[in-house]
Amino acid sequence: MVRLYTDDLSIGYGERTIIKELSVQIPDQKITTIIGSNGCGKSTLLKAITRVIPYQSGAVVLDGKIVAKENTKLLAKKMAILPQAPENASGLTVGELVSYGRFPYQTGFGRLSTKDYEVIDWALKVTGTSEFKYLPVDSLSGGQRQRVWIAMALAQETEIIFLDEPTTYLDMAHQLEVLELLQKLNREEKRTIVMVLHDLNQAARFADYIIALKSGNVVKAGTCEEVITKQVLRDVFQIDAEIGIDPRTKKPMCTTYNLLRGE
């Protein structure tokens, strides 16, 4: 089932076109990862789909409606985005930050309702951050902060969550912690997860569907087995990769690679 897709989407900055006439589908209730080299348009695509930036032509369609024409609060009840570098939360406690996720549901003077507090506590519990509720966000480790930002996105009660490189600047253990949390949200809460990842093996391990971009175009989209191949990685990254099988997940993994020179 596909609720969200782009149709001939073109995005650019000024006279420079980053993505031209791109059509992709986002499978519902699955984990989709977007891979590609730096500057290929991964983050730009995420921002355009979620209406953070405008696009030049084409359309983003969710549930049969053009996203660009949707009411802002209604859209915020359907999709949430966690950017690569979240805004500074200095001076806020964890609970206060997560409460910002309730903005689409607030009316009048913006006071939190009993329902809001229940959802905030639920989001903290699901992300394993309840114990930090009254602590300053600045006092947490990188992995803990990332889980709190995910809790804020969860508090929006959206069915689709976008994340731009959610493991950046985290050590290996915290990267795995965040990705396992997202996988849990997908499997247990049926959330559609769309994220940009740099690590190919993380993308293969956690994704149901992968979109490989190069210069704003889709080189290949499909299952991990269809995308993590020697030819696709050659085309996308200009590397000569050796592909093996992850002994734990049985999914393909890049075991080693060399740069392709002069091709």
Automatic annotation (TrEMBL):
Keyword presence, Oxidoreductase: no
Residues covered by the ABC transporter domain: 4-240
GO CC term (a single one): plasma membrane
GO biological process, one term: iron ion transport
One Pfam match: ABC_tran
Principal localisation: membrane
InterPro entries hit by this protein: AAA+_ATPase (IPR003593), ABC_transporter-like_ATP-bd (IPR003439), ABC_transporter-like_CS (IPR017871), P-loop_NTPase (IPR027417), Siderophore_ABC-ATPase (IPR051535)
SMART domains: AAA
Keyword list, A-Z: ATP-binding, Cell membrane, Ion transport, Iron, Iron transport, Membrane, Nucleotide-binding, Transport
Organism encoding this protein: Psychrobacillus insolitus
Listed GO MF terms: ATP binding; ATP hydrolysis activity
Protein name stated in the entry: Iron complex transport system ATP-binding protein
Membrane topology of this protein: Peripheral membrane protein
Protein localization: Cell membrane
Alphabetized CDD domains for the sequence: ABC_Iron-Siderophores_B12_Hemin
Source superkingdom: Bacteria
